[in-house]
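pinning this so it doesn't scroll away 📌
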Amino acid sequence: MNLEFSDWDQDVPPEGYEEYQTLINALNRKNQNEFGLLFVECTSLKAEKLFARLNYDLPDKKLEILRLVEPITTLYDRVLNLYINKQFHILFIQGLEYSLYEYEKAKFGEITETHSHDLSGVPPILDHLNKLRESFRDNIPITFVFLGRPFLIDYFIHRAQDFFDWKSSNVLKLTSVPDLDQEESANCSVRKSQASCSPLIDNYCFPCDRLK
């Protein structure tokens, strides 16, 4: 995989937040109207904290988050319409696990999070991404950041190789996100109030998040 995003020539990050600083560097390096993919391994609860912090740390970037709360088989039209209406630079996508849960339940009769290496089929949403990768690149020139649990990343690596290996920079395993102090939190709230995000469901989390 191309590691062009993983650059350490920026400010030295606080101890314990090296992965977060790598993500900041990666997003700062992407030019406007430049297509790119990034995959971040984290829980859904940590993803919410990450989005709030990045809204503060990337004031020159317009961020949007798409929170999926049910299984889907396609994504392109939804993202294209969102991009046309919002014109953002970076889109965070959270919740694709639901689509893989539905696939595992239908194909294997149970949800185990262990079938990413199975070659007998491809989850419909990943097949969709494989087939429409050029359309995403040509018509939605932004940085996509897919947030998810480890098994979601494994599915991308093994069952969506065409999409994952194409214009992708790296996989980051995010273990910690810096807290916002009171002043930073206030500034972030003002900025978030000026931006429109896809709906957030209360207590949004996956079944195993509390175990992580």
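📌 and the second one:
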Amino acid sequence: MAESHGTAKAGHAAPTGAHTGAEGHGKAAFPPFEPATFASQLVSFAIAFVLLYVIVSRIALPRVGGLLAARQGMIDHDLAEAQRLKDESDAALKAYESELATARSRSQAIGNETRDKLSAQSEVERKALEQRLAAKLEAAEASIAATRTAAMANVRSIAADAAAAIVQRLTGQLPDGPSVEAAVDASLKG
């Protein structure tokens, strides 16, 4: 060993096999493209592919399939729940619309009944008022007739007095009472 170290010190070291390619200026090929290693690389790729296929098919795919099945089950459950809730809301809406229609018909019936009651009551009040007004009208007509009769009786005497005054003023003589009354009676009868 000492000799090998001594010779190394004395001059340049002898080239070793590992450094020859690197120290040489020749181009070395990229290892995966070297034709000498194609067969071993293909075997390695085939083994890796088979192992990867086994791992994926035995472990990963069942887990993914289980997750997809669980997710589909959850989606189906959610859709069924949504459909159930939709059916319930549709039933509640129909019940609400039915109750609303019933309430509207009841309110309309109550309104009609109230209107009929008020109409009947106002009709009774109107008839009572008409009867009171008719009685007042008859009393007024009787009073007017009495006043007219009294006025007509007074008119005759007033007309006779006025005619006598006019004749006296025009002629200067006072006419006799029976002739003035006869003239007034004739003019009143028409």
